[in-house]
């Protein structure tokens, strides 16, 4: 019988605390990209330019079997910050409005009462900065929040000490609007102070300011959730159909024959001018490279301060790649339950924590492990009455022990994914799916449902048990009926 991961946390925590031997509590730099592909690291050889991420991979450990808890933005972010499945923490779907996707711009009065404006993560949920606060950590977030726009939901109401960024799922990179609605905040107040400036530059600026203020003085938690390389959120189809990127970074890639084309049918308008596939790929890569430069500047500053080696640097994408992304050799992309929607690139650097340089780790790990693992590293207490769905991963990342994780489950409306050991079951709403052996078929090409019915039955039964466990958990808003 497979034991639920949530029950494993306490025992693993006790063992691993003794293994953390750094004299000082480490600082933490968590960088999360948005919709970046599994293969989109320069070190993997697909032509994308990412020297800072390549440096992290050479000086740290790259995880190849790392998953997030949901195949799109909002629930994935809630889970990495809480260490709890979306169905347990209450954010198991998107906090967004659908009408602007079809060309409709809300008036200010309409927008003020839409779900994108009033929805948010349950205030009873404890997130990473609040957990780290008792250990003396100062916390900042610069970038994409996506967990509520009302004051009670904003980062500085949840444990962060400082916030500059946007509050919903996507923006115009220059105008800082989501489909025409301004959405940049500084702490609890809306701001348009930097309108017109490319947002990656702004998040870089704020992160470097934070590091200059805190690095070397006391432990810090810096969370930089870039929106790059997510598609731009604008009503103009030409902007919406690609990723905005500065010209200097576009010029780092080969020119394309045609920037735009006319689409005879488009959900905004017919016809509509949209970006070509080749230009979209170029723009996507340029946005990643611009983000990479920002990451490099953070690493250099920490190095200059003399604390880089005792800073836990973690990088991963919030979900599978989309748009111009390269998810090879995985099947599928963002929003799907195929590996390409939930398995993402991840790199960890922490020499003072004995994380080895230049290693590739294929152990089964997830973003749910982040919360308990950082608690161990920071030597702070976990709340005894909060069920976590992850465990302390440090001995696994150091290559000392196999991962305790044996299973992972995903649910997005009628889309289902379940992994038990090497077996993966996918149900894409009854349209596609099957049973796959990931040890021999990482691309999920050979459906074994007919040849291994006993395995399929086992995985489905375990998924049903997990679903019951989630439904029996103490309910959290905003979606649960209680």
Please give a structural write-up.
The structure is a single chain. The protein is α/β, with parallel strands linked by helices and 482 residues long. It has one domain (8-401): Alkaline Phosphatase, subunit A (3-Layer(aba) Sandwich), CATH 3.40.720.10. Helices cover 28% and strands 18% of the residues. It contains 15 helices and 20 strands. It has helices at residues 9-17, 51-59, 73-82, 86-89, 108-112, 115-118, 128-132, 199-214, 237-240, 247-250, 277-304, 339-342, 370-378, 394-397, 453-472; strands spanning 27-33, 61-63, 66-67, 138-144, 162-166, 177-178, 181-182, 184-186, 189-190, 220-225, 260-263, 272-275, 311-317, 346-349, 359-361, 365-366, 407-412, 415-420, 423-428, 433-437. Strands 9-8-5-4-10-1-13-14-2-15 form a ten-stranded mixed β-sheet, with helices on one face. Helix 1 (9-17) runs parallel beside helix 13 and helix 8 (199-214) packs parallel to helix 11. The radius of gyration is 21 Å and the shape is globular. The model is unreliable at 1-5 and 7-22 (pLDDT under 50).
Q: How would you briefly describe this protein structure?
A:
With 482 residues, the protein is of the alpha/beta class.
What are the SSEs and their pairings?
Blueprint: H1 9-17, E1 27-33, H2 51-59, E2 61-63, E3 66-67, H3 73-82, H4 86-89, H5 108-112, H6 115-118, H7 128-132, E4 138-144, E5 162-166, E6 177-178, E7 181-182, E8 184-186, E9 189-190, H8 199-214, E10 220-225, H9 237-240, H10 247-250, E11 260-263, E12 272-275, H11 277-304, E13 311-317, H12 339-342, E14 346-349, E15 359-361, E16 365-366, H13 370-378, H14 394-397, E17 407-412, E18 415-420, E19 423-428, E20 433-437, H15 453-472
Parallel strand pairs: 1-10, 1-13, 2-15, 3-16, 4-5, 4-10
Antiparallel strand pairs: 2-14, 5-8, 6-7, 8-9, 11-12, 13-14, 17-18, 18-19, 19-20
